[in-house]
Amino acid sequence: MNPKLVLFLLCISLATAHHARAKTILPDACGDDSVKFDVATQKDQLAPASPAAGQAQIVFIESFVRNIGWIGGGPIIRFGMDGAWVGADKGDSYFTLTVNPGVHHLCASLQTISGRMKKNSVELTSFTAEPGKTYYYQFTLSVGAHSTMGASGPGATNGGGASTDFSFDLAAVNDDVGRFRIKASPLATSKPK
Fold first, then answer.
1. How many domains is the chain built from?
2. Are 156 and 146 in contact (CB under 8 A)?
């Protein structure tokens, strides 16, 4: 076989292997990690209408808890359902989606995060939608700090200092909490970049 051809094929296979390794693998309920959203929020919006006949409605709510100083706006959270991203919100906001009755698999993930946090920044759940019902799912992101004075190991800094902790949770909330969060939060509208 031609040595140049062998070298060319080897280079192509190595490049493909590196690209495959670099791509983040997300659970089946999520969408493609390369999809990113632009998000805008609008305050003082009317409460969403009831779901259409024969349909159900899901309300995705983001709750951003800051236990340390946070620079900039709230983080963008992508929400996926049944293998595709269905939208995103930013900071303490919400959006709604009409869904068909039946079992649905949900995913929530920070849009931009890197390092070891990437694979741990996804939350999953599932639910069975019934016609005429509204379901509220809240993704809570808590950001805090702790001292690393004298600490060793991951997250520690030389000579002490502070390290940032993140926690994530996607959970159903009851109708009262859901309606209150809608009333107290801006509506998020998102579109893929």
1. 1
2. no
